[in-house]
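Quick one:
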Amino acid sequence: RRALILQALVEEYIRTGQPVSSRSILETSGLQVSSATVRNDLAKLESYGFVEQPHTSAGRVPTHQGYRYYVDHCSPARLRSATRVRIESFFTDVHRELSKLLQETSGLLSDISHYPAVVVGPGLGDERVVALHLVPLSPTVLLAVTIVESGRVTRDIVRLARDVSESDLARAETLLSRAYRGSTLAEGEAAVAKIPLGDLSEPVRRAAKAVTQTLAGTEVRSADIYVGGTSQLAELWEDLAQVHSMLGLLERDAVVREIVDDPGAGTAVRIGAELNVDDVELAVVSSDYEAGEHGIGRVGVIGPMRMDYRRTIKIVEEVSEGLGESLGRP
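Output:
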């Protein structure tokens, strides 16, 4: 019974944004109990840390723990047929360049969910390197340019501990090109590791090692981030300071990647303190998608803790599935 009362309270608070009274819970939950029973159960839920009372005479609102319990025990909502058709039709006939598709997908997800949306690209995945070039920017700084078979280009700044001559850099480029060409980044790194160190001069060895270490992180850095729906921030957060905080957050790719990413596969919901974000209370619903040879990416929705979780979870799952199917087609 207390679980049903908590569910009714969370869903009513999501709908109205106002503290929820015991009378409202009775009207929406369908429980055949007295208002005194509901008040007693609310007091218990408050002692558990699931709800709190902003003011003495006000109703209750869910806490972070209350949202967490609700999300862990709720099931995704059923989407309206028009929403399902819109998602399906978007991915039915995909003839877009990858970056354009991912950008448009973030717009679709935001438009349907009514929250800011993020699509994290799949990175380079199993794509094979077509060419690798080293461009000197200074005696101790160079630019590593990697081109993969899909045509995507990554550029990484490599910093060296000591000066390297152009002739030594050219030798390092030849060495690395042979190791990486036709291979994935991981395979190229393994090929470089097998090269006998005694066959290389010390400057070439240092340059090759620095470039290899830098390219090892390219897989993560090459995953582009596409954000849609920032115009909805003012409607979701009434406090202008929080709107500004959200705008600043969404402009920092590393932070966005961290809050949308999740160590486990599948759908994840992270709430409040779980996100380690200051100044604004957030909730994030995200799910991964498989992009065939491109690897794995992630889609997500970012909103206030007072988010319609059941509907949002279903939308994120439907969009991630549609995106994965479209990118995995031969």
